[in-house]
Amino acid sequence: MRESTASDYTYDSSLEERLSEWRALRDYSDAERRAAAQALLAEMYGGLALRPALHRHPGPHGYLTKDFLLHVYRQMVERGEMPEDTRILQALRMKPVRTLSGVATLTVLTKPYPCPGKCLFCPTDVRMPKSYLHDEPGAMRAEQHHFDPYEQTAARLESLESVGHPTGKVELLILGGTWSAYRRDYQAWFVRRCLDALNGSVSSSLEEAQSRNARAARRNVGLVVETRPDRITPSELRWLRSIGVTKVQVGVQSTQDRILEINRRGHTLADTRRAFGLLRAAGFKIHAHWMPNLLGADGPGDRADFAALWEDPDLRPDELKIYPTSLLQNSDLFAHWERGEYRPYTYAELVELLVSIKPTIPRYCRVNRLVRDFPAHHVVAGNRRSNLREEVQRVLASRGLRCQCIRCREIGAQPVRREDLRLEELVYRAGRAEERFLSFVTSEDRLAGYVRLSLPQSPGADLGWPDLREAALIREIHIYGQSLGIGDLGPPGTAQHVGLGSELLSHAEAIARRRGYARLAVISAIGTRGYYAERGFLDGELYQVKPL
Ligand code: SF4
Ligand SMILES: [Zn+2]
Per-residue b/e over 443-454, b at no fewer than 16 CB within 10 Å? Predict the structure, then answer.
C-alpha cells in the first residue's frame, strides 16, 4: 500500500472554530463587548452600514459577530432603548443566502439503515445512514438529536430564528441513504414528526399533522427525499405523493451502462429514463445527482456523459447536484485505488472539467452543488477543497464564459419592478411531455421567478390517476426575494410581492387551455394549498386541480 504523506491530509478545523466561537458567544457577561455592540448598533441606526460600523467598533477581542449583535439588538429593542429597525435586522441575518430563494431550507437526516445499493464509491459508517460520515456537520447534528425528526427540525428552526431568519415557509429536505428502502411506517412517522415540529404540537396521525400544517404559522412548502432510479414505480410515487413529497432527488451518477456497471450501481440507464418519465408524468420536480471521475471514467468520457443529460430527451433534469467522486477509505473504491486501478482527478483537472461543462447547462436547470463536502481528512487522495464553486466561477469569468443555470441567474433579495421584467418562454421536449419553462427576467438576465408547466402527450395515461386525467401539470412555481413570513408584506419591491406568481400561473393556464387540456393539476405542498385554493384550484386526491 502507498504510504500516506502529510500532504494527503488537511484537517477541517472550521467546525472546531465554529464551536469555539459559539462557546465564546455564550459568555454574555463581557460588559466591554456589550458596550461596543451598543455603540455600533446606535451608529447603524443612524444610517451607517454594517461593515464600516464593525471596523469602527472592533470590540475587546476582535470584531463583534453578527449573532452577538443580534442578541444585543433584541435586548435593546425589548428594553425600549432602541426602536425596531428592519434594515438593521436584515444586515445582521447571519447567512442571508439561506433564505434568498424565498424559502428556508431545513435538512433532516434519517436513522442509520442499510441501503440496497452496493455502490463502489459510497462510504459505510455504521453510525450513520448509508453514504454519510459521522463527522459531517449535518450528520453530527442529527446524531446529537438521536436522528429524531422532531428534535432535528425543532433545533434547526430555533437556530434559524435565533439569527433572525423568517421560518414561515420551510422546505424540508430529508437526506440519508435511500428513502424508499426504509419501511413505510417509518417514513410516515418521520414526516409526521417533522410537521409536528413545524406545527409546534404533537398529532396522532400524518393526516392530522398535514391538515394542521396547512394553517400553521410555519408551513411546509416543499418536501424532498432522495432515492434510486430502480425504486421509482407508479405505486412508489403514489405513496410519496400521499406523504406530501414534491421533489425527488435521484442518483443518476452516470448516463453510461458501462460506468454504472463497473461502479456497481445496480441499475441501468434504462431505469433512470423510466424513472424520470414516471416522475415527470406525476409532476414531481426531478433533481439529479451526477458523478464525474467514477471508476472507468476519464475527462472526455465525463464530458460526453454530462452532455447526454441534456441531449437525451428522456433525462433533462430540473435540478442537479454534481458530486465529483471522493476517494474515501471506508468505500470499496479504496481497494481499487490501492491496486492502482483508480486515479482521482486533481483539483486543476476538476476545475477544468467543471469550467467546460457549466456553460452547457440549460437555462431551465438549477445547479445546487458542485462538490460533496466530505470533511477533508476523510478524502484519501484527490480534491479536498470545498471552494470549487468559487474557483470555477472565477475561471469562467476570466475566460468570458458564463453559466446560465437558474442558480447563477437568481435575483436574490434585489428589489425588482414589474415593468423591468420580461417574460421568457423556453420550450423543450422531455420524455413524453412538452415542457414550458416560463420565467421573468431582467434586462441583465437576472431571474425573478419561474413556473414549470408540463404538457403530457397522453395526459394521465402513464399512471392512470384520476387527478391527472386530461390534465396539464404545474410542477413548480418559484418566486425569488427574501423569504417572508406568511401574511408579511415585506419591503416593497421584493419579487414575491409584485404578483409574479399569479401572473405566471395565468400564462400557464392560458397555454394549457389553448392546447386543449381540460384541467390544470398542481403538485402542491401541504403549506401551499391555500395559495392555489385562492386561485381556483380544488382539492383532488393527490393534487389540486383547476378545470380550464
Ligand atoms: S444507492 Fe446511494 S446510498 Fe445506497 S450505496 Fe449507492 S450511493 Fe450509497
Ligand atoms: Zn450555474
Answer: eeebbbbbbbbb
Report CA(358)–ligand 2 centroid distance (Å). Answer: 6
- Residue (of 158, 163, 15) closest to 94 by Cα position: 163
**Pocket mutation for ligand 1, best pick of 109, 118, 119 (most atoms within 8 Å of C-beta):** 119
C-alpha cell at 406: 437558474
Task: For domain 418-547, give its CATH number from 3.30.1360.120, 3.40.630.30, 3.20.20.70, 3.40.50.2000.
Answer: 3.40.630.30
Class of domain 228-409: alpha beta
State whether residue 385 is helix, strand or coil.
Answer: coil
Q: Which residues line ligand 1 (CB under 6 A)?
A: 115, 117, 119, 122, 130-131, 177-178, 228, 251
481 φψ region: left (φ > 0), alpha (ψ -120 to 50), beta (else):
left
Residue 403 CA, ligand 2 centroid: distance in Å = 4
What does the pLDDT average to over 189-202?
97
For the ranges 132-146, 174-188, 506-520, which has the lowest average pLDDT? 132-146
User: What would the mean pLDDT of 98-110 be, rounded to a whole number?
Assistant: 74
- Does residue 230 contact residue 266 with C-beta atoms inside 8 Å? yes
Smallest-distance ligand from the CA of 405: 2
Q: What is the pLDDT of residues 438-492, one digit of tens each?
A: 999 999 999 999 999 999 998 878 899 999 999 999 999 988 864 444 444 444 4
Which residue has a Cα nearest atom 2 of ligand 1?
177
Nearest residue to 96 via CA among 117, 114, 122, 70: 70
Q: What is the pLDDT of residue 135?
A: 82
**Ligand 1 atom at minimum distance from 130 CA:** 3
| pLDDT tens, position by position, 1-53 | 333 332 222 223 344 444 344 344 434 346 777 888 888 898 888 888 887 78
Distance 234 CA to ligand 2 centre (A): 32
